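User: Here's a structure from my thesis project, written as structure tokens. My advisor, Dr. K., wants to see whether a designed sequence matches the one we expressed. Can you design one independently, without my sequence as a hint?
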């Protein structure tokens, strides 16, 4: 392999691969350097116990932009999504709630608890959908760069104009979503705690916060702007696990000649006179390119790979204060049988086993989980989403057996997790067992990812699943730092193409797509400038 490229990508996560694909398709010679022995970052499938495979980190798909799927021809390369029959199942103390499953079913479920909430639901759904559309419209657009001149002003006007054209009701909802807590927002729509819980859960996923924390309503929205097979807001299962997405992406890259190196950790971005010139690997090898795109998060890039002397004091200070730490604990378990829920008994596969099963019985439960984590390091009664992908995908577990993803919220990233990891894993399994009493005895093996393990394995600083907090102060033009929301770093030739840029975390492909567009635009500008001066 050569040591000179048009572009080097640091990290082979799904956004790094997406960026590499678009650059290579534009004719550039691209090299991807991935630290692990597998591409995909947080979007991978791995065997965690002999015969049992699962999505190691991210586990469900919705946000991946249809344009990225189409451009990279992911369906032709093996990516297939199975829609959920019902979206979620919430076991409560003496009852349960099922969400989704076709026209009228959610309303009928809500009506069992509160008739007014059942009537309000279609209006809530329509309002949220209008706001989600705003997010969809800007997801594949570069945010305006504050202080970036006429082009930025035009970009701001272009992206702001459609919002100005929306009805006052949508503008009000938009303001609510961006500023309110999930609790305040949902109080404005519903009465019954179970109904609010069904939507409030989305606000604490990957968000180290309670449902009463101001700004938490936005995270709720971030989880509904996706779509599956054209159905807005739906979530689905990627056959073969999430790794099937990134394996298909790697194949798309290969078709355009992208060179991908595994077990190739980068230790430093090389900078000369304020311009990125290449990278140094941990092996000591140096590779050179006029364009470097960092798929790693801003905290890792600027605190570890870029020399602080190459950044000004103000930028260094802001990056030091960039907020990471989503408070997430992620386990995979191998199971001998399906969980038998007290409130909906049965070990034979039923539709609730194929849903996202949410252990978060109440809005207060979710707030208490956050309070516990702040005071004692983790919640005494954790919030857990259980997904049993083997109920719809027989490629993951031996016949008759199952795998479960346990995605758990409110675990302080600052805890010494080497000391407490096993104890907390036991607590999580016990909590599921409280609702499905055969669960503990069905566990054959478990794989634990505390926040510290997420950092060590995936390079997610503070275990942050989104490469940084998704609060208003770190969104859109301010992600990661105001003035650099347009994928360009303070160092010429160094770009950011991961989830720490707009539109943020999730398996979207959007940051990789948008960063590539800006890189190509800059090269075009440079090319024209060089051409003119001749
Ligand atoms: C536990 C968990 C659950 C999640 N669940 C979901 C979900 O169900 N659905 C969803 O849509 N999203 C989910 N997410 C979020 C989503 O997975 C991420 O936002 C997304 O995968 C990030 O993609 P990325 O390409 O931007 O970065 P990453 O996937 O983080 O990729 C960055 C890459 O850089 C590599 N790297 C790090 N350091 C170096 C170095 N020094 N040199 C070279 N390479 C390096 C890493 O190994 C990694 O491959 C989840 C995330 C986690 C962690």
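Assistant: Designed independently from the structure alone:
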């Amino acid at each position: 392999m050569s040591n000179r490229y048009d572009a080097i990508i640091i990290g082979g996560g799904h956004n790094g691969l997406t960026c590499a694909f678009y650059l290579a398709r534009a004719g550039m010679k691209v090299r991807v350097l991935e630290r692990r022995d597998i591409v995909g970052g947080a979007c991978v499938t791995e065997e965690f116990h002999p015969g049992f495979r699962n999505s190691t980190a991210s586990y469900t798909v919705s946000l991946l932009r249809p344009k990225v799927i189409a451009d990279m021809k992911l369906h032709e390369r093996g990516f297939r999504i199975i829609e959920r029959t019902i979206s979620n199942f919430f076991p409560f103390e003496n009852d349960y709630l099922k969400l989704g499953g076709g026209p009228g079913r959610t309303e009928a479920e809500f009506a069992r608890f509160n008739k007014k909430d059942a009537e309000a639901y279609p209006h809530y759904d329509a309002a949220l959908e209008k706001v989600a559309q705003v997010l969809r419209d800007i997801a594949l657009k570069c945010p305006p760069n504050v202080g970036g001149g006429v082009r930025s002003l035009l970009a701001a006007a272009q992206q702001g104009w459609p919002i100005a054209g929306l009805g006052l009701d949508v503008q009000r909802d938009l303001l609510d979503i961006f500023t309110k807590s999930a609790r305040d927002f949902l109080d404005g729509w519903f009465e019954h705690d179970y109904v609010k819980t069904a939507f409030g859960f989305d606000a604490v996923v990957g968000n180290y916060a309670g449902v009463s924390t101001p700004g938490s309503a936005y995270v709720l929205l971030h989880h509904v702007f996706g779509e599956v097979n054209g159905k807005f807001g739906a979530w689905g299962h990627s056959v073969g696990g999430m790794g099937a997405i990134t394996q298909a992406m790697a194949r798309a890259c290969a078709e355009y000649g992208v060179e991908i190196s595994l077990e190739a950790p980068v230790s430093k971005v090389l900078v000369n006179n304020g311009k990125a010139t290449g990278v140094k690997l941990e092996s000591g090898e140096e590779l050179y390119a006029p364009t470097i795109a960092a798929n790693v998060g801003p905290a890792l890039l600027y605190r570890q790979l870029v020399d602080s002397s190459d950044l000004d004091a103000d930028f260094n200070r802001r990056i030091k204060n960039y907020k990471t730490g989503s408070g997430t604990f992620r386990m995979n378990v191998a199971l001998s049988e399906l969980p038998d829920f007290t409130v909906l008994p049965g070990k034979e596969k039923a539709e609730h086993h194929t849903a996202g099963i949410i252990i978060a019985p109440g809005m207060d439960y979710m707030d208490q989980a956050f309070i516990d984590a702040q005071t004692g390091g983790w919640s005494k009664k954790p919030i857990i989403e259980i997904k049993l992908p083997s109920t719809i995908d027989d490629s993951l577990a031996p016949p008759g057996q199952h795998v479960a993803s346990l995605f758990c919220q409110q675990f302080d990233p600052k805890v010494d997790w080497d000391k407490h990891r096993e104890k907390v894993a036991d607590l999580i399994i016990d909590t599921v067992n409280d609702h499905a009493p055969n669960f503990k005895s069905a566990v054959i093996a478990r794989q634990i990812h505390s926040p510290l393990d997420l950092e060590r394995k995936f390079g997610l600083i503070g275990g942050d699943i989104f490469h940084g907090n998704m609060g208003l102060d770190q969104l859109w033009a301010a992600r990661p730092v105001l003035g650099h929301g347009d994928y360009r770093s303070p160092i010429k030739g160094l770009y950011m193409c991961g989830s720490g840029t707009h539109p943020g975390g999730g398996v979207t492909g959007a940051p990789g797509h948008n960063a590539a567009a800006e890189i190509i635009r800059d090269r075009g500008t440079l090319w024209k400038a060089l051409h003119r001066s001749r």
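When you compare it with your expressed construct, this may help: Residues 487 and 518 are 7 Å apart (CA to CA).
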